[in-house]
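Re: 2-phosphoglycolic acid structure - here you go.
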Amino acid sequence: MRNTLVIGNWKMNKTLEEAVELVVRLKEKATDFPPSAEVVLAPPALYLASIAMLEEPWHKLAAQNCSHHDYGAFTGEISAPMLKSMAVDYCIIGHSERRTYFHETDALLAAKVDACLRNGIQPVFCCGEQLKQRKEREHFVTVLNQLQQGLFHLTPAQLSDVVIAYEPVWAIGTGQTASPEEANEMHTFIRQQLSAHFGEVAANDLRILYGGSVSAGNAASLLACSDIDGALVGGASLHVRDFAAIIGAAS
Ligand code: PGA
């Protein structure tokens, strides 16, 4: 049975004071969160320690990125062992903003997945097509290629520690979400491809999140789909009422 996972990706937003206030105000709503929902906050890395110190049992922590190296002379980087030492459980890998603005390649992302797994961090591996690719009916082959390059070198046992987030690039931050049918069609495709490569058991256990303009208004219809196991939420996770409503829809 796959429990529903809701991750709030704050991206590069909030001062420390605002970040702590958001956590404190979410805590006030946490008693209403469905017990079956797993809630994860992905604040800017700079705030992970402060938020970890609040020791809130209703959420876990994710990083938004990590180095593919474990340690060394890599100025400005943060490694998976460092994240692990701060009680971080998940790390978002291959978000389209990192692929686009920071030119992260498929090979680099595969190495980052490996860095997470060898340090006991669950990678949240993002995939998704551009609008042009969907219009040209290339969205399935695009996503399959991202999965092949980023994950297909793993063993089925390693895959069990991976979460996938399908995030169509045209839906991220645009207010234009994929319909539940469009999203679920892709999620089913992803699971079928993983099943063919890793086996049915591994594929059935894996959680596939949807991301891209998830809101309080559309979360319930997306999360009701058979192959959608949660949400990677950007903009709406910055607002207490919206994020709490999305978590509430995860029952
Ligand atoms: P959004 O972002 O919810 O603001 O569209 C999602 C994401 O980038 O993970």
